[in-house]
Write a structure and sequence with these properties.
Number of helices: 14
Number of strands: 10
Bound molecules: iron/sulfur cluster
CATH superfamily of the largest domain: NADP-dependent oxidoreductase domain
Helix content: 40-55%
Strand order of the largest sheet: 3-4-5-6-7-8-9-10
Distance between the termini: 39 Å
Shape: globular
Structural class: alpha/beta
Order of helices and strands: EEEHEHEHEHEHEHEHEHHHHHHH
Radius of gyration: 20 Å
CATH architecture of the largest domain: Alpha-Beta Barrel
CATH class of the largest domain: Alpha Beta
Largest sheet: 8 strands, parallel, barrel
Protein name: 4Fe-4S dicluster domain-containing protein
CATH topology of the largest domain: TIM Barrel
Length: 342
């Protein structure tokens, strides 16, 4: 089995286990440093972060600047104009303790930045590449429409898009198109935001797509160890794993919240929608005691403050009836608290 992947025309070739550095925001600098160094020592060379992930870039800069030339760093900007683009880029370079970003990505924009679109974003990106601050230009997105537009535009060397074993045919088409167009494909949410708990099945699925580089979001050493063990011993798709995937696909098909968090800033009631709208799944697919603490109960109670403004529904890239999902999940949660068996 080929255990490396090349990101299209960037030529970046790395082990098929990328490090997703979103969750290291939640742990101490010391613990994050240990994880990052352990990943590096074991052969992981691709690290994906974002300006938006609070101190994730700082932690990468602290831990990995001594080995900067042997790793690839992808980070992201959510800037909406050129001025903020340059501010973000300078901040990321400083925090990451480097003078170049391997792949600089537009972070989930609501449109596909192009030259002449009036925002100045793509022009700034090109200028940054000319100056050597950025080596390759990428984009991340949750929406099929924008992913297709980015591929069609020919302006991007990589596309980061949600891709896990719950993918639909439409998602798979994006991966295939990237391969045809020689655009690097980075699989985001390869564990579907924590709903996929069998990492071997997740890995075996990704292994079927030779152009996909999954970035695993790890926070605990035990999680990292699982992926590190796959470097020398990659799991193949067995009947057992494919049965498990079939069961999960049945359980998680269609209308479930992927936890992308895209709707969260829009909520005037301050509801933590990305977790609350998928609580029934979290309760059953991860240790339930983690979801039944007084803190989580308080977060769930906030669903009562929903004013049904519909903002979350309007922003959900999966077209979900988010307020309805919140209600269903809250009802189930209260029943579980009252003793309903899981
Ligand atoms: S409908 Fe409810 S949950 Fe959705 S954004 Fe409005 S207040 Fe928040
Ligand atoms: S409701 Fe939609 S936008 Fe909000 S977190 Fe879930 S999947 Fe994302």
């Amino acid at each position: 089995m080929n255990t490396t992947v090349t990101l299209g025309k960037t030529g970046i070739t790395v082990n098929k286990n990328g490090f997703g550095a979103l969750p290291i925001q939640r742990i101490t600098t010391e613990d994050a440093g240990k994880l990052l160094k352990k990943a590096y020592d074991a052969g992981i060379r691709f690290f994906d972060t974002a300006r938006f992930y609070t101190d994730s870039e700082v932690k990468i800069g602290e831990a990995l600047s001594p080995v900067r030339s042997s790793i690839y760093i992808a980070t992201k900007t959510a800037a909406q104009n050129a001025e903020d683009f340059w501010k973000d880029l300078d901040t990321s370079l400083t925090l990451l303790k480097t003078d170049y970003i391997d792949i600089y990505q537009f972070h989930n924009p609501s449109f596909c930045p192009k030259p002449g679109d009036g925002t100045g974003l793509y022009e700034a990106m090109e200028e940054a590449r000319k100056e050597g601050k950025v080596r390759h230009i990428g984009i991340t997105n949750h929406r099929l429409k924008i992913a297709h537009e980015a591929i069609d535009s020919g302006l991007y060397e990589t596309l980061q898009f949600p891709f896990c074993y719950l993918a639909t045919d439409k998602d798979i088409e994006i991966v295939t198109r990237c391969k045809q167009e020689n655009i690097g494909f980075i699989s985001m949410k390869a564990l579907s935001g924590g709903l996929i708990t069998n990492s071997a099945a997740a890995y075996a699925f990704q292994a079927q797509y030779d152009n996909a580089l999954p970035i695993w979001g790890v926070q605990r050493e035990s999680e990292l160890d699982e992926f590190l063990s796959y470097i020398g011993n990659p799991p193949a798709m067995t009947q057992e794993l494919s049965d498990l995937i079939a069961r999960d696909r049945e359980q998680l098909a269609g209308n479930f919240c992927r936890g992308c968090g895209y709707c969260v800033p829009t909520c005037p009631a301050g509801i933590e929608i990305n977790n609350c709208a998928r609580m029934s799944l979290l309760l059953r697919r991860s240790p339930s005691e983690l979801q039944l603490t007084p803190q989580v109960q308080e977060k769930m109670k906030k669903i009562e403050d929903c004013i049904h403004c519909g903002q979350c529904r309007a922003h959900c890239p999966y077209g979900l009836d988010t307020p309805g999902l919140l209600e269903e999940n809250y009802k189930d949660y209260k029943e579980v608290l009252a003793g309903k068996p899981l």
